[in-house]
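User: structure tokens for this one?
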Amino acid sequence: MGSERGAPGEGGPILRGNLRKFREARGLSQQQLAMVCVLALAGGLAYLLGTQANRFAEGLEQGFQLQGTWKVPSDEGPFTTVSFGFTSADGGVWQIADFSRTAPLNGYFKVTADPNLYLLHNEQHEEVGWANVAFTSAIGGKIDGLASVQHGPTRYQVKRVDDFVTHYDRDFGGLTQTHLDDPAHFRWGSCAG
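Assistant:
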């Protein structure tokens, strides 16, 4: 029985036999079977691309996902993360954790009429910048996205790295993570203290 399977990667006699039976039962030549396989693959790819195009159009119209943790791409030196956690439909809390600083920056954000633009306010509720989400995606479970975050004179180009919202303690000594399912965790208002 072990000899019927063939070596790994060869497809094995059972698979080849089943394909031959399928082809013969439908009166298909090998070229026609190959064409059927190519068309099925092309159809699946077209469906995937169409689905992603629809999600992209929906994101432009209704807003891409902001909540989560974003990171400034860097191969060397201290890294910077930016996180956003909704506490209500109107906004939530944000944090810029730039590890070249002595403490993270905390504040609140508010939604705007543009579904991909958010206003950043500091702990005293003064406007200090904005965040603009270019896109987000999760194809095959891979989290992806790009955004620009302006805080004062500094602009960060960030990539989305996690659904979890990560906030660091004032001295970077510890961190808190929560998932999208638990936005109430950030209602404590520790941004102010």
